Amino acid sequence: MIIVLQKEATEKQLQDIVDKIKGYGLEPHVIVGVARTVIGLVGDKQGLEPRVFEGMPGVEKAVPIMAPYKLASRDAKAEDTLIRVGDTLIGGGELIYMAGPCAVESREQILETAYAVKEAGASILRGGAFKPRTSPYSFQGLGETGLQYLAEAGQAAGLLTVSEVVDPSDVDLVSKYVDILQIGARNMQNFALLRRVGQTRKPVLLKRGLSATIEEWLMAAEYIMSEGNYQVILCERGIRTFETATRNTLDVGAIALVRQLSHLPVVADPSHATGRRDLVVPAGCAAVAAGAQGLLVEVHPNPDAALSDGAQSLTPKQFEQMVGAVAQVAKSVTPEPTKYWWNRNAV
Amino acid sequence: MIIVLQKEATEKQLQDIVDKIKGYGLEPHVIVGVARTVIGLVGDKQGLEPRVFEGMPGVEKAVPIMAPYKLASRDAKAEDTLIRVGDTLIGGGELIYMAGPCAVESREQILETAYAVKEAGASILRGGAFKPRTSPYSFQGLGETGLQYLAEAGQAAGLLTVSEVVDPSDVDLVSKYVDILQIGARNMQNFALLRRVGQTRKPVLLKRGLSATIEEWLMAAEYIMSEGNYQVILCERGIRTFETATRNTLDVGAIALVRQLSHLPVVADPSHATGRRDLVVPAGCAAVAAGAQGLLVEVHPNPDAALSDGAQSLTPKQFEQMVGAVAQVAKSVTPEPTKYWWNRNAV
Amino acid sequence: MIIVLQKEATEKQLQDIVDKIKGYGLEPHVIVGVARTVIGLVGDKQGLEPRVFEGMPGVEKAVPIMAPYKLASRDAKAEDTLIRVGDTLIGGGELIYMAGPCAVESREQILETAYAVKEAGASILRGGAFKPRTSPYSFQGLGETGLQYLAEAGQAAGLLTVSEVVDPSDVDLVSKYVDILQIGARNMQNFALLRRVGQTRKPVLLKRGLSATIEEWLMAAEYIMSEGNYQVILCERGIRTFETATRNTLDVGAIALVRQLSHLPVVADPSHATGRRDLVVPAGCAAVAAGAQGLLVEVHPNPDAALSDGAQSLTPKQFEQMVGAVAQVAKSVTPEPTKYWWNRNAV
Amino acid sequence: MIIVLQKEATEKQLQDIVDKIKGYGLEPHVIVGVARTVIGLVGDKQGLEPRVFEGMPGVEKAVPIMAPYKLASRDAKAEDTLIRVGDTLIGGGELIYMAGPCAVESREQILETAYAVKEAGASILRGGAFKPRTSPYSFQGLGETGLQYLAEAGQAAGLLTVSEVVDPSDVDLVSKYVDILQIGARNMQNFALLRRVGQTRKPVLLKRGLSATIEEWLMAAEYIMSEGNYQVILCERGIRTFETATRNTLDVGAIALVRQLSHLPVVADPSHATGRRDLVVPAGCAAVAAGAQGLLVEVHPNPDAALSDGAQSLTPKQFEQMVGAVAQVAKSVTPEPTKYWWNRNAV
Fold it and tell me: A58-79: per-residue pLDDT in tens?
């Protein structure tokens, strides 16, 4: 960390800051500049925040040098993390498709979708049973019954399953039925929930929050990992910006950057990122071109009758065509960023 | 709701949309314009979302006309909601101060703060026991012990208490110790938690999410109210924007607008909104000038030694001076917006 | 347009609004709903803004139905616009590369770059002579001398040229030297400048503003087109969001959407969108995968010595490798969105 | 500036960076930390940007320590700048009102408004003659005729005048008629225009750009000042955020912060910041409570018939009531921030 003093900081204030730094077992390096004095902190103190110094008299600002995440960082682990679930390898060379309806609506609906997306190339079936909806008056999901249908459909079609968990007390229940636990965007900083899924040994699909910075996203992964669960799959699903023509703004730069900063696998959700069926395919292609190792896609046998998010759902037929288009793009992108010259981790 | 058809929509598509509208028990009004055909929906269908129509063939977009919240709206209840806790009336003519440390750190710290903020004019003591921290390595709060200290300090100094609850399974525990339950910004769309506090009969302080629209904020209130708990206090605490010179951007326009849209009381948190001690007072004055009916202020007996958020904490002495400054502003603002000519609800 | 009345709007207010609508030569359709009365406006009135009605007593809001741009819209012209400059066709099936340094720094620098980017596959040479810099103390460009060097280098290497114009009074001067006039992001709503380049018959490369909505971007194109110059190339270059890890956020959804909304060609600038050399290639691939018909890339023979934006510049060798990678992606994407099923303009 | 090296930076890379630093006449201080090596730069080099180093091999990032603006900063000038125009003192203890219509529409309209706002307490008459409109089909202002009407009305009513200039070549013309030149939000980084008004000796009202950071805003002021014109009045007018319920988001924290960072006077425009007549008064009160030294308010004799921005215009009668309300707030706020304890420049 670097601490910048105010122009008018006194000797006494400087001394107080130096003392506080030493109190943390760190070594202060004072550099007297022309316009400002700055202090560099040398040593290792996990979790020390700039704000601890920023309120002190004489301090203009404190600038962190190191990223605050450790376990999620390439500094801690240089090679890519591979997550094996059943026969499926996430984070390896093969593109992974997680497909299915926004919400499990009925046994028939999820079974029909399961067979169709399996046929089209998906290896993981998605479907919400506990839905976080903006309105209390909207369809909230089928709960445990939905999980049962999802598990049955996955088994029948030969697919792994992923479903969202929204309450720490439901983690055991959801874990009983699905292969991968999903943390939704609105819960990315629900730390009680993060800790709880960190205590399981199920892979976790961690969606980026609507307005979460890349650093906050990786810190959310760190929460899960700090509890001992290292199987975290990051999912970029669009961020909130001033633009309202699309539901969210897919951040492809974040995909490419996180592939460098972290060893964790990164997938993308072009359905939520755009909110429009007619943009899902180009956005999915773009995500893969930027380095995404898989896609999470909303597919519904009859989107116009969907109880939620029909507007951004593909039909099984459209999904099949999408897989064809994306596969072309995937072939033209080396799956290992460490092989690219432009990657700082290139070997 | 208004549904706008695509330029090239067919008669068949129009008919399908009309049928779907009728299927919801609503009456379609078709207006054939020069460039587009639009359909107005007449009738009442709570929870019906535009997205239900937006995925249909022939539909360009669907535009909601009514706000999706009901119970939180002035349409449902014209007069201001007053919340009485003990002797304190929130939402009435008197400005309410909720003051105290970011986190309860020790019995001594919270007791000392309690006496000091009481002396300065606060009626409610704040202090976190379960802290939602961005880093798993930061101080996470004292848990139940913190609640005990907070309750003791509140009682000793003659103050009501407010503290954050982050896990639905903690709601009963926190309710045992405090007078007001706080929902933090990061949990504003933690719907499981909202429902759970909605099932209590404790007043709820609902902070606006970092990137929540006013509509989403009022929908979060609606979640609580739809469970039967009408005692919701809205708290504007700054939103996330591109500007990084301040921690967040205090949205005074939202304060003024929500006072018109909703009957619920609105307070502001200038500490989190700015993140800088030297901006807390002007931001607090601005919030009150815009119509805030109370302030939530971080006060710490020794900010430089605070375990969290010292940089934005006032000393008790500074808080006392702030109360003096804000009181001046408050006096110059009529507390009842319905008395203003510029308010649409003016009588 | 749809006008929504306030719940408490009077008969008299309704009548005034109806009269005002008729005053514009439009036909009002009043729909009395359960909770609100709305009025649909039928007729054609270019440039009529919702805000004209929003201030009237009794009006809650006015919602536009039609996009405000005409000439730039697919409604006005269904087929893609092709722009021919010399032998180069922009907006056709071939991907176009505009490459070169942020600023022309010397005759040698631009000549060396020109030969190198030509060799690598570029057809257009970029280079700034009038630089809009955030600081008045930064290098501001070589002015006319820079244009001369650029023109000479373009001619020598057999490349077309593009350079930014920042002042309406420089349009003639810049037009003398370059083939394409660039409007920078910071000038996207410099309407005097837009009108002025609209009066030339040079193709215009119109960068999206840092915080411009898609609609505002197309309205800026409309300004140019309304003066009679239909040769507008739209350039997505990243928008400003809360995320600071990348310089800007490349909006691939906007690329895909604008390809549908407008007939104008769309290119992308992955250099400014990311601000980091190590993200330029994946971002460029993503843009093309989303539908971009060309790329604008900063290339410098010696980026570490560049007078501006070296951090995001590629070396000629890196650019050559980029062209190889992007070409692979381009091959897997059909260049004509109207051929895609997912495109609303699909035939 | 502080340069942070990559974990894997080599000795050779470190040496290259050190050499480059010395090449700028600066002194490098190398601090070898546990996880990273950082280099502090000592010396003064105006206009040196972090990006100059960020592209170098071995560099992770470069962090600026000093603000890039000089003349606009309190470092350069500790005491508040006072701007005298005629008898009016801007930046002194007295609150200044600049009021009038969005656009000058006719001689009668501006004369009627002038008398009315003068009567209500305004000292400066505003009115646009060259209007930057989003649509080329909207009313664009009366041009020089509008300036003549404005000047006549100002003189008749005993008011100073302010009007926007949008084209560098119009600066002389506009200067002939008005007392203060306005730079609009969309032109805040129109550097050719900034330089041009910097060459006049007219006070300049510099609106903050829609998505300009505080630093960029002060850099725009620096452009004007670097040409020798020190009479810059900063105007906060709301920034663009994800919230669409208000036209923009008034940034009161920026008002308070800029009063500390800069010696220049700061005013606010609650009309554009909110876009809604019913929010103008509370937003204006909030701006003044946060430290604004004046207000720019849209007033129209007949807002419902206004050719632009009627929805956010007050009637003269409403403006008069606003002045009364704001004056109350102003009285309760000390006009000199340097008198506040919470201000870092407090004496």
Answer: 898 888 888 889 999 998 899 9
Residue C241 located in a structural domain: yes
CATH value at residue D6:
3.30.70.1140
Q: Which domain holds residue D11?
A: 2-63
Instruction: Verify that B234 and B332 share a domain, yes or no.
Output: yes
How far is the alpha carbon of D329 from chain C, nearest alpha carbon, in Å? 26
- B342 pLDDT band, cuts 50/70/90, is low
Unique residue bearing structure tokens 């971007």: C217
| pLDDT tens string D86-126 | 989 999 989 999 999 999 999 999 999 999 999 999 999 99
Domain boundary among C14, C29, C63: C63
CB atoms < 10 A from the CB of D108, how many?
11
Could you tell me which of D285, D296, D235 has the C-alpha nearest to residue D262? D235
For C62, the closest chain B residue by CA position comes to B65
As given in the structure block, the two tokens for residue D285 are 């009160």
C35 & C134 share domain: no
State the pLDDT confidence band at D344, using cuts at 50, 70 and 90. low
B29 and B144 inside one domain: no
The answer as to whether C69 is a domain residue is no
Determine whether the interchain pair A253/C239 forms a contact, defined as Cβ–Cβ distance below 8 Å: no
Closest-CA residue of chain C to B2? C2
Whether C292 and C330 map to the same domain: the answer is yes
Would B231 be classed as within a structural domain? Answer: yes
- Residue found under tokens 């002045």: D323
Pairing between strand D180-183 and D27-32? Answer: unpaired
B window 188-227, beta carbon within 8 A of D: 211, 213-215
Same-domain pairing of D14 and D159: no
Please compute Rg for chain C using Cα positions: 23
Judge: A190–B311 Cβ closer than 8 Å, yes or no. no
Do the Cβ atoms of C150 and C177 come closer than 8 Å? yes
Asked whether the predicted pLDDT for residue A338 surpasses 80, the reply is no
CB count, 10 Å around CB of D158?
Answer: 13
* Residue D87 and residue D55 share a domain: no
On whether both B42 and B127 belong to a single domain, the answer is no
pLDDT tens, residue by residue, D128-183: 999 998 889 888 899 999 999 999 999 999 999 999 999 999 999 999 999 999 99
| Alpha helices, DSSP H, located in chain C | 11-23, 51-54, 107-120, 144-157, 171-177, 191-198, 214-226, 252-261, 270-274, 277-290, 316-331
Q: In Å, what is the CA distance from C161 to each residue of A18, B159, C288, C315?
A: 56, 72, 22, 19
Q: Which of D15, D30, D63 is the last residue of a domain?
A: D63
The CATH number linked to B109 is 3.20.20.70
- Domain total for chain B? 2
Shared domain for C155 and C292, answered yes or no, is yes
Residue B14's φ and ψ, nearest 5 degrees, are -55, -45
Q: Do A289 and C282 touch (CB under 8 A)?
A: yes
Whole-model pTM: value is: 0.95
Contact list in B for residue D332 (CB cut-off 8 A) is 285, 325, 328-329, 331-332
Residue D346 placed within a domain: no
Chain B residue numbers touching A187 (CB-CB < 8 A): 190
